[in-house]
Fold these 2 entries.
Entry 1:
Amino acid sequence: LALSAALGAVTLVSASTAMTAFAADKIQLRMSTPATETDFRSQGLATVFADGVSEFATYEPHYNDTLFKQGTELVAIARGNLEMSITSAQELAKLIPEWSIFTAGYLMRDAEHQRKVFEGDIGKEMYQLVEDKLGVKLLSVMYFGTRQLNLRTDAKITTPADLEGVKLRMPGTEAWQFLGRALGANPTPMAFTEVYTGLQTGAIDGQDNPLPTNKDKKFHEVTKQIVLTGHLVDMNFLAFSKKTWDGLSTDQQETVMASAQKASAEITKTILANEAQLVDFFKEQGLQVYTPDVDAFRNRAQSMYLESDFSKDWPKGLLERVNAVN
Ligand code: KDO
């Protein structure tokens, strides 16, 4: 008996070794994003995450909207056509209205506040909602940077009134358009991959993104100023197919989770370090970079959000709980 049990074990081990020996047997993890290959999130995932799961999975990133169009990734995952994406509160809010609370301007204070909110009870509850309603698992939160206004016009912007009539490109969901209006601008939707040309041709007057993204996309070549409104401490989540997740062993699930969290923590660190240096970079490129009357922007945005239809969908007491996290 002892011998046959031992032989059985040997057979099992060699079978599993044979399985992992061929890449073809590995689980394919396709990730679709509008971001470039040089984006810090792309880089962090392609190294830390890909290495972490490499024993049993092949991480296969698709950049610049080449696999799925911006904003369609979550539905693709839910339908079983994609395994992973870098998603946002704005994309989640389109499908799960409770999530619109995290699209509000001037809600999150900084990267640390964001991390504590999503790594605590609030994150657990809000992630569960996504899993139950969409069949998508959110593995981790990462800081994407603080969004600033970036304009091709040169008139100085001090208060929201100065943005009247300014055609501001915002990403293509209602939550983003509302944020543009809350800043006082005239928002217009446009895909991320079209923004550079939009700025170059004057189809739009400006756009908003974090400083590292502005540099990565070379928006400084086609704009004249950056107004440090800091209107959204932006964050992304690593979205993962629940169907794929359920097919993994417990060990593999732990590895996927740990690799996602490690990659996200490193991405956050890199983005924070870069943001701290980039004001000087843009000034060297000849752009005006300055801080407007941030209180004027904050007051207008916060009161517009509280009076908006979005706020009717926010879970009761959640705003107070988010504000109380420190
Ligand atoms: C953008 O379209 O401006 C935006 O920054 C919005 C983010 O939520 C995120 O989708 C991001 O684009 C893409 O990942 C491309 O960097």
Entry 2:
Amino acid sequence: DEDGELVSRPPVVTIMGHVDHGKTSLLDAIRHANVVAGEAGGITQHIGAYQVEQNGQKITFIDTPGHAAFTAMRARGAQATDIAILVVAADDSVMPQTIESINHAKAAGVPIIVAINKIDKHEANPQKVRTELLQHEVFVESMGGEVLDVEVSAKNGTNLDKLLEAILLQAEILDLKANPNRTAEGTVIEAQLDRGRGSVATVLVQKGTLRPGQIVVAGDQWGRVRALVNDKGEHVKEATPATPVEVLGLSGTPAAGDKFAVVESESRAREISEYRQRLARDKAAARQSGQRGSLEQMMTQ
Ligand code: GTP
Ligand code: NA
Ligand code: MG
């Protein structure tokens, strides 16, 4: 069913950049603008990921500390991001974590869109940002390259529409598609134990459609989906590709970046999760005995 009918899906976007360049502010500004414009009175619940709509097209933002999530997901080979927004403060320009972010995105083969932020500030120098990005082989359009760049102010909400348009343009080039009519698969974005609700895992569905009642394996955890909760805190009957959703009903908390998949039976789910837990225990034991070994070596030298 890998080659079943492919249908267009929203782009999945991660925000990256140097500390304090405005990643969180930008995400908040985009979400706020969208909530105010689109769903008057709607209270957006924070679930570590959310979707906005621009001209009737959806965009999925993964709202986690960019680096950690991106690195964890890349390390596990679970490519969840389609587009990286590189936030560069116009008053501070290119800094060490800006360069790190560029390297992460390039290594993962993810296209970059540059958001030159804080253009409201007196010290803002967007042209300097573009020139410095050249030195790291990020060629923005106005410098003869193909990387889209948008001057924004998260503080004043300037050009957020332009940024969303740039994302949709990039998404169109990528021609993102998935098959919604197959068993669901995806990636865990974050998970925690909640007092009233038990294990709550925020997942990104990447293939297929996830529904309550299905049996899911996520990392070394499993469970029957008791409920699906969307980014607005609403219970939903299904989650299609590129949709972030909270999964209730897992036995424990999988790790960020873990893959999840729907399986056909509880016995199969238990078998896979027990196998993975045993593997993890064996690995930990091997590490420990390795440490003991090198300690003994040191003592006898
Ligand atoms: P870390 O997550 O700590 O790496 O920071 P961040 O990149 O998420 O930056 P954050 O959104 O926390 O913003 C850092 C500071 O910059 C805060 O004081 C924001 O108010 C300020 N800031 C963010 N965007 C803008 C902007 O467009 N203009 C101005 N003037 N200040 C901004
Ligand atoms: Na900050
Ligand atoms: Mg932040």
